[in-house]
Structures are given as structure tokens and as C-alpha cells.
Amino acid sequence: MKFIQADVLKQKPTDESKLGFGKIFTDYMFTMKYKVGQGWYDAQIEPHRPIAFDLATTVFHYAQGIFEGLKAFKNEKGEIRVFRPEENFKRMNRSAVRMCIPEIDEKLVLEGLFELLKIEKDWIPTSPGTALYIRPSIVATNVALGVHAGTEYLFFIILSPVGSYYAHGLAPTRLLVEDFYTRATVGGTGEAKCIANYAVSLRAGEEAAKKGFDQVLWLDANEKKYVEEVGSMNMFFVIDGEVITPMLTGSILPGITRKSCIELLKANGYKVSERKISIDEVIEAQAAGKLDEAFGTGTAAVISPVGMMEYKGRDYVVNNNEMGKITKWLYDTITGIQTGRLADTHNWVVKL
Ligand code: COI
Questions:
Q1: pTM of the model
Q2: Which coenzyme or cofactor does it need (predicted)?
């Protein structure tokens, strides 16, 4: 693979407790171009730097873009460990089909990612709760204002050393149940990881933040009745011993951490249901003292306890605003497998 050396390397962060999320980027990125009639070409590793685009570039106008998020870890033995990377590129190709973006060769981009990670290994933080966040993306880059699928694309992978996604770390999150705005509808793009899904979530997110909430909990678009997801996390509730997560209806992102939690819970004898769950069911369980735990799952957010939800002006506290037992077990197990502290019983980790 072609490699273009950077003239100067950046200074690496010295204090891993101050990384935050997605603010610092490494020296190199992986890029690859696409043209109709030619296919994907020019796969290379080159310096991460600003690139100029014409202002009539398709993605700026019609949001024809998709992305992924995954993480690499480094443990005290110096092992580089990537969590379920094949799953991300499989999902990226499903998003690509939905957004009329040409599919990628999953094997080739995995090889590109692994080569990039080997070059950037010194950027992988090692403190507990940190990781190297990997952001693969594809955007339409041809210059045209007609509303058509692009004819040229750029695939890229950029890397960012990160700490916790939430500024408050693992402290329980406060969610506002959104009963006006809609994130996604069945038949829309909710299950694709397309950039526009995140743009449409911003208004509600900003309004919730002004009221002191961390995130919005989305309900289904048609009835505003069933819990969907948080936008940066899939949701789980533990009610009377049953672990429930909203079933994938087409408007919910099929999260890889979500899937990993379901597999871990089932393998350890928990009763797990992927089904529709209404916000009324959650609130009634809370009132009856049966809502044991609520938590979100995601690559960036990992496993995040939910301590409180507001719905129609009323507050509902979950588990005394503390991290529950199952939430803690999942956090410890997933991060243990990711970093190598626990055995990788499901063969999820690729070691470089
Ligand atoms: C992730 O968890 O990787 C996400 O993509 C969610 C968010 C940071 C956009």
C-alpha cells in the first residue's frame, strides 16, 4: 500500500485524563477514491491534514455520506487489540447500499486499517477508559448540484485518541424522553449510519442540553409510544429480571456494542428480549419499583448507566441514580475483553 510520509509529526498528548472525545487526531489517515467506471482506486496512507473541496461538492448539499465508529486498545503487554472491526465494515456496506454509495472491499479496508494502526501504535492511549477511536467514512465528492447519487467518492479512516464520551465519565446520564421531534421512521434511514441522521437529532439535543439533560431518548415516529434509541447509544432496560432492548424495526441503529451485550447476556444465562417496549411500560415499571436498571450501549459511550429520565414534565429516577449490577458487569466484561484483561471467549478481538 502506498505510504506518504509526513514532513513533521505532531506532539502526542501527555495527559491521558484530558483526552475528551474526538478533539485530537493522529498523524496519518487511510484514504481511497472512487469514480464511476473505475471503481475504488488509490488506496493509501497519507498525512492527516485539511483537504480542499469545491463548495458545490455533493456531500455538502445532499448529505450523501456514511460513517462508522470502532476502537483499538493497547494493553500493558503492548498488544494492539481491535474490537469486532469486521462488523463495522459489514454495517458500512449496508449503510452504503441504503445511501446509493458504492460498496467497499471489506478485506482491503481492514488491511488498510491494520496497517494504519501499526504506524500509529504510539498514539493508542493505555489508561483505563481510554482508546484509539477509529472513524471510517465515505462521502460523495463530485461537483454537481443536481439531486443524483454521486459519481465520485472519498473513503477515509481517521484516528483520535479518546477518553470518556460524556464529560462526566461513567456517572449516570440524564435523558429527556422526546415526544415532539422525530429521529427516524421505518422506511427512512434510521438503521443506516448516515451523516444526516445525526444532523436531524441536533435541534432536540440542543433543547435538552439547555434543560440540563445529557441526551434525548427517541420514541417511534408514528405513535410516539415505543422507545427507539438515544442517538449515540442503543437502550436497554432491566425490568423484573428481564433485560429488554428495543427490537430492530428499521429505524434503529443495529449497534455492535448492542449485539455484543445481547450475546454476552445470553451466554451468561440472562433472560434477554429484543422486543417493542413502550415508554409507558418503562414508567409503570419504575412506579412499581420494578425498573431495576437502564443503560445505553455504543462504541463511543461503551456501557453508560441511565440515572434519570424526564417524560412529559415528570422525573423518573432509575436505581437511585446509581450504576446497576448488570450495567457494571457488562461494562467490566466488554472493557475486559477489549483490553485483554478477560479472556476473549467470543473471538471478537483482532490482535495486531
Ligand atoms: C459511536 O459510538 O461510534 C458513534 O458513532 C456514536 C456517536 C459518537 C456519533
A1: 0.97
A2: pyridoxal 5'-phosphate
